[in-house]
Every structure is written in structure tokens, then in C-alpha cells.
Specification:
The chain has about 325 residues and is of the alpha+beta class. Helices cover about 30% and strands about 20% of the residues. It is built from nine helices and eleven strands. The chain has helices spanning about 20-35, 40-55, 100-110, 115-125, 135, 140-150, 260-265, 265-280, 280-290, and strands at about 1-5, 75-80, 85-95, 115, 190, 205-210, 215-225, 245, 250-255, 300-305, 310-315. The strands form two sheets. Strands 1, 2, 3, 4, 5, 6 and 7 form a seven-stranded mixed β-sheet that branches. Strands 8-9-10-11 form a four-stranded antiparallel β-sheet. β8 and β9 (about 250-255) form a beta hairpin. The longest helix has 20 residues, at about 20-35. The radius of gyration is 17 Å and the shape is globular. It starts with a strand and ends in an 8-residue tail after the last strand. The relative contact order is 0.21.
Length: about 325
């Protein structure tokens, strides 16, 4: 299992809670690993892991998401099952408690791949998913973060970086950790990451990739998006091929960062395509795309290939993964 959780400016305001945040992350990762050990499928694992991350107020997904310029919540999520290559996403949702479950519902129970706004929330309610009001998602730190962005007149990533169109320099930093014992053997592998500025102890957008003992891979991602964003803005997280991708012949990828950049470059699909057509390893493909294609300081990704090898690559100062 590979899991990530991106940077979140809220965390920087209270460093005393960092140990609790890190512990929550590790507990959720352990939950996913245990599911795989029990023989559960990759698709179920990535959804379950992301649901727990959405329920944790420390990350920019579900409860604890950042706010739009109108002080509202617009949540995005994406899900893909590599065994069927079926994917689904939801965007600008405001009342469904767990957007990742709605994204999977779109994938498996509708003929569509992306639903947005009120219609997406209505589909969730009609299918018995848990619904919540604004007060559920709101945490004080995110409100304070919005107020700072309003004063500075900026739109920021959940890990505090201002969004701009001038970051066009070559990427210079990456990390591809060695898989834990047993993971590279190809039986069960889960990788997850609250991606972001780990050195600044920040957390945010979440994602998860997994490979099960049956050879299936799956990917999931969930986010509240950019702080102080224009209402209606949609990033890469719910866009199949940009923010997430999974196929049993290559692997599973989950991205995070400046969504507009990841959409322009179809980042998740690029990684998988290089593995499929060029025969590159997951490490080679991730580095080529994250370090050689997209602008520096725009984000990163986690992945697990069909053999169970884990990889995390980023061009930001850091990325926290497990």
C-alpha cells in the first residue's frame, strides 16, 4: 500500500499536534496493510484508506478541507480499479461526507466517469451515502488560512505555496524509497502519502495506491483543492489520467500538487504509458515525468507497479509517504 497526504498550512499553526498527525497517518497506513494481509482486494483497500484520511481533520480532504473564496467547501475525489480499468470521479461536492466513496460509485454504478456539483451530491444521497453540512467539514485552522489568503490576495496550495504560472524551471528533486521487505516480491503492496512540505510539518491532499495478492492494482485520491480558489475550480484529483490512474499491466499512480499543471501534462497517464510503451521501471517513469516534464515545485506522485514495487517522486522540498 502506498499512501500520501499533502502539505497543509493549517498544521504549521500548531506544531504541538504534529505527533498526533503523524500517528494518525501511520495508523491509517497500518489499516490498509492489514486489509491486504487478510486478502482483501486493492480497490477496497484504497477506498477504505482514503475514507479514513477524509475523516481525519488533519488533511485537506473531507473533514478539514480548505475553503473557497466564497467560504464554502468544494471537494474532489477520484478512483480507478486497475483490474477493469474503470475509473470515476466527483468534483465540487459540498455535502457528501466521503467523496472517495462517491467517486467509486460513479465508476461502478453509472455509465459516466465524472459528475460534479449538486448533481453529484444528489446521486450520493440517493444511494444512501452519508451526507453532512458545512459545520462538519470546517476546522478553525482552515478558516484562519483562508483569512490569510484573503489579506494577501493569493490562492494557495494546501501546503502553503502560492499558485502561479511562472514555475517553468527544470525540476531538481525526487525520492523513490526502496520497498519494504515483502512488498517488492509482488504479493501485497500499499503506498499512501499526505504529500507536501514534510520539512515544514504540513499535511493536505491525500491519495493511496495498492496492489493485492491477486495481481490487481487500484488508485484513489481526494482533496479540498486550493485555499481561496474561485468557486467551481476543479483540479487534477478527480480527472482520470491526470491525478490518478491504474491498470494491471503497469501499476497505480496517485498525484498531488498544482492541479492545472497535472491536467495539462496528463501526469498519471504519462507515467503509466512510459512503463507500458518504453518498458521503463516505475522509478524511471516517475522521475522522467515528475523531474523532466512538469515545472519544478509543482508537486509529485506515488505509485506501485504490477510487481509490487513502490515509488514516490516529487519536485517540491519534500513529500511525506508511507
Amino acid at each position: 500500500v502506498s499512501r500520501r497526504g499533502a502539505g497543509g498550512d493549517a498544521c504549521a499553526t500548531d506544531r504541538s499536534t504534529v505527533p498526533k498527525r503523524l500517528q494518525a497517518f501511520q495508523d491509517i497506513l497500518a489499516h490498509g496493510q492489514e486489509m491486504l494481509r487478510r486478502g482483501e482486494k486493492a480497490a477496497d483497500v484504497v477506498e477504505s484508506v482514503v475514507v479514513l484520511l477524509e475523516d481525519c481533520p488533519f488533511f485537506n480532504a473531507g473533514k478539514g478541507s480548505v475553503l473557497t473564496a466564497d467560504e464554502t467547501f468544494e471537494l474532489d475525489a477520484g478512483f480507478m480499479d486497475g483490474s477493469t480499468m474503470c475509473g470515476g470521479g466527483c468534483a465540487t461536492c459540498s455535502t457528501v461526507k466521503n467523496p472517495i466513496t462517491l467517486a467509486r460509485l460513479v465508476c461502478e454504478q453509472t455509465p459516466h466517469v465524472l459528475l460534479v456539483g449538486l448533481a453529484a451530491d444528489s446521486l450520493a444521497a440517493a444511494n444512501g451515502l452519508e451526507m453532512r453540512g458545512k459545520e462538519y467539514f470546517l476546522v478553525q485552522e482552515r478558516l484562519e488560512q483562508l483569512q490569510r489568503n484573503r489579506v494577501s490576495g493569493t490562492v494557495s496550495l494546501d501546503h502553503g505555496g502560492e499558485l502561479n504560472k511562472d514555475s517553468l524551471n527544470k525540476c531538481t528533486k525526487a525520492a523513490c524509497p526502496e520497498p519494504s521487505p515483502g512488498q517488492a516480491a509482488g504479493e501485497d503492496a500499499v503506498h499512501s502519502d499526505p504529500l507536501g512540505m514534510y520539512s515544514e510539518q504540513k499535511f493536505g491532499t491525500v491519495g493511496c495506491c495498492a496492489k493485492d495478492r491477486y495481481g490487481n492494482v487500484a488508485a484513489a485520491a481526494s482533496t479540498g483543492g486550493l485555499c481561496n480558489k474561485h468557486p467551481g475550480r476543479v483540479g487534477d484529483t478527480p480527472v482520470m489520467g491526470a491525478g490518478f490512474y491504474a491498470a494491471n499491466d503497469t501499476g497505480a499512480i496517485s498525484c498531488t500538487g498544482k492541479g492545472e499543471i497535472f491536467i495539462m501534462h496528463s501526469v498519471a497517464n504519462q507515467v503509466a504509458t512510459r512503463m507500458r510503451l518504453l518498458g521503463e521501471s516505475v522509478d524511471e517513469s516517475m522521475r522522467a515525468v515528475i523531474l523532466g516534464t512538469i515545472p519544478e515545485r509543482t508537486g509529485g506522485a506515488i505509485a506501485v507497479d504490477r510487481h509490487g514495487t513502490l515509488c514516490a517522486s516529487y519536485n517540491t522540498p519534500g513529500m511525506f509517504t508511507g
